[in-house]
Amino acid sequence: MTDPLAIYVHWPFCVSKCPYCDFNSHVRAEIDEAGWRDALLADIAHEAALTPGRAVGSIFFGGGTPSLMAPSTVAAVIDAVTTRWQQDAAVEITLEANPSSVEAARFAGYAAAGVNRVSLGLQALDDADLRVLGRPHDVRAGLVALDVAQATFPRVSVDLIYDRPGQMVAAWEAELGRALAFGTTHLSLYGLTIEPGTRFATLRAKGSLTLPGEEVSADLFDLTAAMTAAAGRPAYEVSNHAAAGAASRHNLAYWTYGDYVGVGPGAHGRRGGAATVRHRKPENWRSAVAANGHGVAEETPLAPVTRAREALVMGLRLTAGIDAANFAKRTGRALADAVDPHGLARLSDLGLIASDAVGLRLTPRGRPLLDAVLGQLI
Which of 138, 139, 231, 343 could make an S-S bridge to 376, C-beta 3.0–4.6 Å? Predict the structure, then answer.
């Protein structure tokens, strides 16, 4: 039986651009929502025609700020997906939301449309840090939105950023303890990274942005792992923590190298052994849809060696690691043939990775060093 598809829908618009963000997000004075909705529906129809008979296991509205979409647009997209593909019985439908009161008021409409999981971008529980992060809400607005989300949706995830400028271990310990007390069964907890091309990268280059040192960063990572585990929401991926049964089904499709369809500006996909990339600039994507019936800019068949490399990069993010049988099924290569044996031996001797007949996984010591481990393996 073919595994279910994951469907990613990108809504590229934001109220403002956060200084740490390198996602495909754009600020526009006016948005012709009906036009953008129709273009998304055309992009979906194109992908459905290429994947007949597949079931859908998850739909994920990402961005940008999908909670700027009208509930009617979300409903139209969900209807298009569930009409054109078969629907898995336990389909997970997630929408990323920013916690402003205007967007929170739309939550009932999203739930009526079929959304059953919301990922709420609180990002910090400190007003001064929210201002540094360029967020357009304060803590009070965030908590109001969280209350509405928890009263509306069966599953809620909270996003927080740590390792922020000037952040100390004791401050994060208190903040994370407060977040864990909210009772959400899923938390996405990201160490701040400075991405090229962002305003934070410019500030850092000028010496105007000071981040915690490596030792503090390591302590913050270890504290996060310990506190979430003690609270019954252990890490199942480098940055994601969940109670039993509450892991993101959509993101697990990425990390286990399942097929996923990406529609909307800049969206990536992996389906049928090929990589797809949509036009990144929203207006270019929409023009391509009008001209061609889809927004695909590139579609590239992936050789088994490339699929194996991608599956290693994604799969080692998971605490459970890579299942060897699944790896072979989805890449066409044996796991043992996809890694450098000398690098694997060195990493095993250092206690950073564990390997057996079942598969390959990072040890607790290796998890904070994922990038370095991959450099030795690939």
Answer: 343
Q: What is the largest CA-CA distance in the chain?
A: 58
Specify the CATH class of 5-255 in words.
alpha beta
Distance from C-alpha of 340 to C-alpha of 345, rounded to nearest angstrom: 9
33-50 vs 71-84: helix crossing angle, rounded to 10: 10
Q: 304 in helix, strand or coil?
A: helix
Give pLDDT tens digits for 133-159.
Answer: 999 999 999 999 999 999 999 999 999
Q: In the predicted model, what is the mean pLDDT of residues 93-106?
A: 86
Helix (H) or strand (E) holding 145: helix 139-152
Residues 99/145, Cβ–Cβ less than 8 Å? yes
List, by residue range, all CATH 3.20.20.70 domains of the chain: 5-255
* Residues 241 and 323 sit within 8 Å (Cβ to Cβ): no
Residues 176-235 pLDDT 10s = 999 999 999 999 999 999 999 999 999 999 999 989 999 999 999 999 999 999 999 999
CATH class of domain segment(s) 304-377: mainly alpha
168 Cβ partners below 8 Å, 6+ apart? 212, 216
Total-model pTM: 0.95
Structure tokens at 110: 């999203």
Closest CA to 61 of 97, 27, 31: 97
What is the average per-residue pLDDT within 31-59?
A: 96
**Environment class of 214 (CB within 10 Å of its CB; exposed 0-12, middle 13-18, buried 19+):** exposed
- Please tell me the distance from the alpha carbon of residue 188 to that of residue 95, in angstroms, as a whole number: 14
pLDDT at 103 over 90: no
Please give the Cα distance from 35 to 296 (Å, whole number).
18
pLDDT of residue 132 exceeding 90, the answer is yes
- pLDDT for 105 beyond 90: no
Q: Which residues contact 208 (CB under 8 A, 6 or more apart)?
A: none
Residue 101: the pLDDT is 65
| Region(s) of the chain under CATH 1.10.10.920 | 304-377
Which is nearest to 189 in space by CA: 168, 161, 223?
A: 161
